[in-house]
Amino acid sequence: MAMRTLHGHTYAAPSAAKYLASSLTIPRLPSAFHRTTYLSKQQAVSGGGHEAKTRMLGVSMCSFFGSLQGFKVCVKNTKVQIVGLKTSASAKREVQGTGKGSLKGSEVRVRFAPSPTGNLHVGGARTALFNYLFAKSLGGKFILRIEDTDLERSSRDSEEAVICDLQWLGLEWDEGPDRKGEYGPYRQSERTHIYRQYVDKLVESGHVYRCFCTDEELEAMREEAKLKALPPRYMGKWGCASQAEIDVELEKGTPYTFRFRVPQEGSVTIQDLIRGEVSWSKDTLGDFVVLRSNGQPVYNFCVAVDDATMHISHVIRAEEHLPNTLRQALIYNALGFPMPQFGHVSLILAPDRSKLSKRHGATSVGQFREMGFLAPAMVNYLALLGWNDGTEDEIFTVDQIIQKFSIDRVTKSGAIFDQTKLQWMNGQHLRSLPTEELASMLGNQWVKAGILSEYQEAFVNEATELLKNGLELVADSEEGLLNILGYPLHLTLASNQVKEIVDDNITDVVSSIVAAYDSGELQAVIDGDHDAWQKWIKGIGKTFKRKGKRLFMPIRIALTGRMQGPEMGAILRLLREGETSGIITEKGSLVPLSQRIKVLREVDWTAVSSALENSRDIEPVTVLSH
To answer: Can you give the residue ranges of the Glutamyl/glutaminyl-tRNA synthetase class Ib catalytic domain (predicted)?
Structure first.
């Protein structure tokens, strides 16, 4: 490839064209010039007071372009005409593509760049996930970069928390602060020397200048713009100051920043992977700071330099970063860097369609982890916030999402975060776990909660089978197990919902259950299998000519103290296991079958019926005889 030198820097032909294009105030040159492109010499340098320099640069550009292989340069009526530039295949990434994400394999490099100033928000996690899915679906690389230039708010504790959350989600990166890579360091605080190097290049090329404006002067500019109902823009003198004026301030030791010289003509256009074509007029932006007076680089400058030097091919980030793209594009072009493809993902909204925040409840990945959500369920749900595979399917494994993921199916409309839907989805993933894994999770939860004194496999396995279909969170299993172990008969009989059941000769069924217990028949049925239990139930139904709700409801109330719950025979077998094993703690409040039968013997069913008849809204009444 032909190499040429300009202002002391050596460039390949396509890069040189792109470098000069930025000086000429167009966003970038196309990857192949299929048509004649006209560039104004007078746009070479923005700002007044540089007429001589502009003319000289215009001449040098003509001779420089003319010396490049494949160029034909004509000057007519202050226009530079460039004809027939052809670029090689290796240079095609020097401009942003069509937004379809056509690169594959090792050419695809994406990054997630969190600021370690707090916990990982679900919005940030979704952005990280989309980058991860995009890279893995195309065989590319996923890079983690820590943007810690906010020295006052950034902390290593926050960084470690973010990393922990990403690892919990399973979003493993290929390069990062803890992984070797050829484009490190991967913390911005460790890359200051790199930023200074590129600031110096921009100063040398005339794209950046020193600004000695005081805070008072800058505030006055802002107030003036405000009075004129204009956006705040830098309108100071230092963009066109003479070298003599600059030397005076340097000798006085006046603090200064470095500002980027923004061309005031033309526009910048990108083909956003998600939003399509997006354009900005350059005259909406004033000269902006790239390096503060304390030597700290500014966010937009760091991001552009980092993405370019780390060879990031696609920048997928939240839509709130869309306005930053104009500044970053100007920096890319000024430094002759290839432009990545951008994709701006919609915000995650609360149910009221406002921006999701702490006032809506849990918003960080760490909070959801502590609440007992599964990482695969969290990934599944976050993936569906703005993406779908084109079907009605909603439950996916991570590998399935990678196989199906396409950036073309990411929507630009805001996604509603619905915790109820997340909990439902978590329940689906819980039930898809191998039985042994789910039982281990629940058993350990019960021991941790103090319901069980120890992990007993037989009891835990039986309880897991009983409860798994009604679970959405592991923590739900605590209440579920306590409901099985307890016997709130007196509360149930105080509810008006049981009136019809009580008045339907419930005493016939209860007397039959007590008699079966006294004879040992009930215990034998419990020791048997499911068929034995069903046969016994049908026997009661045949005796009293009952079936359906009239048969099952009074039996359930009598034996469990509740109107609903898991299969009754399995509950009674679990109670027996809990009683004989001795692992149920006082907190577990186990009421064994013998105690339940004792309570049934003492119920005054006439009093229950009378109380239900006389009042529907009273405190629970005493229903036991004395």
So the answer is: 107-424
